[in-house]
Task: structure prediction
Amino acid sequence: MKIVFATNNKNKIKEIQSMLPLSIEIISLESIGCHEDIPETADTIEGNAVMKANYVTQKYGYDCFADDTGLEVEALNGEPGVFSARYAGEQKSAEDNMDKLLLNLENEANRNAQFKTVITLNLNGEQHLFTGIARGVIILEKIGDQGFGYDPIFKPEGFQETFAQLSLETKNAISHRGKATQELIAFLNKSSS
Result:
């Protein structure tokens, strides 16, 4: 079985391929000749994941899965949410995004937040959605140099460290993306057997 993963991130592809049985092969966008930026203009995380998967299936005719992730902060009514990557502007700078978020939370006592990943799978003419959520809090300053995005200011429930301080193995086991990916993999393993 061959499935396109709608991403240009080779590390993400390698990571997911390593968790799948040998009977399932992940193909990159590059491999199918998709070099354009796939639109992500939906107003929800689910909507963006669906939009990306549908784009590849409709335009290129492949079974496909796509993911979208956002950080939702309780005191900010779910911001930055669907705009997480470009919260501080189109330059998509993780440093600028974290600085803006910390500034917006300066006088907030409630620092509860969650990361949410939605994976949309288009397989054999059917669509399936898998969701992973990691709850935690936004701390007062950046700590740690692992991971990416908002990891240095997000401390997951049950941990004293931020995502940026945890090993990749630990983070993958508890993270939003890890949870959604595990659901996807369980489903694919069942489908391919």
Notes: The first strand starts at residue 2 and ends at 5.
